[in-house]
Amino acid sequence: MVSKSQIKLITSLEQKKHRTKMGLFVVEGKKGIEEVLESNFELHSLFTTQDIFNTYPDRTHIISEVELKKISRLKTAQIGLAIFKIPFRNEIKLEGLVIALDGVRDPGNLGTIIRLCDWFGVETLLCSLDTVDCYNSKVVQATMGSITRVKIHYMDLPLFLKENNSHFKAGTFLEGENVYSSEIPKNSIIVLGNEANGISAKIESLVEKKINIPQFSMAENTESLNVATATAILLSEYRRKENY
Amino acid sequence: MVSKSQIKLITSLEQKKHRTKMGLFVVEGKKGIEEVLESNFELHSLFTTQDIFNTYPDRTHIISEVELKKISRLKTAQIGLAIFKIPFRNEIKLEGLVIALDGVRDPGNLGTIIRLCDWFGVETLLCSLDTVDCYNSKVVQATMGSITRVKIHYMDLPLFLKENNSHFKAGTFLEGENVYSSEIPKNSIIVLGNEANGISAKIESLVEKKINIPQFSMAENTESLNVATATAILLSEYRRKENY
């Protein structure tokens, strides 16, 4: 059974301010829940129509499909909904390549970027305070479990970049150097910008190298690459240069 | 004013069978409409709340915001909705690199892939018959105008690949050769597969080389790359090898 207070808690976690206040976030669907259960994230409570998760019986509530439908945010509710504790990350691990996002707003883009960081072995992702919250359910869903493996930190990004001395700072700009021929040091932070406006002026002034993915077609009015596909190409290119 | 029969036509074009039968598709929003108006696609009719498009007054209908809201499929209707004729493409231009999709189902993925083809100068995109329709409004929206520049053909893809002699056939598979070190001829068709199941067995048997984007992290349960990000990396890598 789901109690009224549990429904209230789950509904409140749709909002970032409540997630931050409670230190909790929601994961839906069998695969997503299994991925997070296997990680070192701590389970708060689990609501499921099928007793298949074999873990923490004291925090597992078997519920009906009608009840699941009531608490689910998915068009088609899937087997279960779990609440996990947002991990507290004190220390920022800066080693090798780090990605930083300056105002990325679309949950799908952030989810894809987290998944790409996971694939390309980027352990730390820095996000400006106006980047969409990574514990937003659409982001969590889009990461396909990668959210448990990439360490994500929200921060005053301009201040952080200004004070950091260990890493080289690069960013993507239309007028930047060709990514295929430009060299980037092993310890670098690469900044990617907002979907509509790119990198903010404040961060532009802190970047030591501007890089660009060249366009190979002649069309003049082609839209510049989406931030998630640009991240895919940059990470691929960085790892290729390092390894092959 | 929008007549009842016009509303009926616009609504019917949400379905692929009607788009195919009528040879028409819908574009919404100022930017999207302008992009298609500037191309060689032919306008059928334009419904707008602001007379800003300066073109084809005989096919332009000034309507109220209430009327636009009635015919729009967007959450927030934007300035106008246009109907264009689907271009008839008789001949398939096979020159240089060609991308082929085997059962890509997600409109956002197809839209991103069309946009990537445009950026990387891939003129021809082949789609299996079970790939999502490129004139689906979500796809059109996601291409950001690139749909007017990339030539897209739906076909019996296994048959086409079997009968084609001009191009080398490659495809992405988990057990494939490392994309960074594998060579692909100038005239190649690269096949990408369905989101859940990859490339079908029928097409697998026709592929001459299997390629793969290696994973750079140690995590064992990382999801394989999404088809759109995989396309981004493949196209980037192909053009890099060719040009740098």
TrEMBL record, chains A, B:
GO terms for biological process: methylation; RNA processing. The keyword Transferase applies. Residues 97-235 form the tRNA/rRNA methyltransferase SpoU type domain. Keywords: Methyltransferase, Transferase. It comes from the Bacteria. InterPro entries: Alpha/beta_knot_MTases (IPR029028), MRM3-like_sub_bind (IPR053888), Ribosomal_eL30-like_sf (IPR029064), rRNA_Methyltransferase (IPR051259), SpoU_MeTrfase (IPR001537), tRNA_m1G_MTases_N (IPR029026). Gene3D superfamilies: 3.30.1330.30, 3.40.1280.10. CDD domains: SpoU-like_RNA-MTase. Residues 5-79 form the MRM3-like substrate binding domain. One of its GO terms (molecular function) is RNA methyltransferase activity. Belongs to the class IV-like SAM-binding methyltransferase superfamily. RNA methyltransferase TrmH family. This is TrmH family RNA methyltransferase.
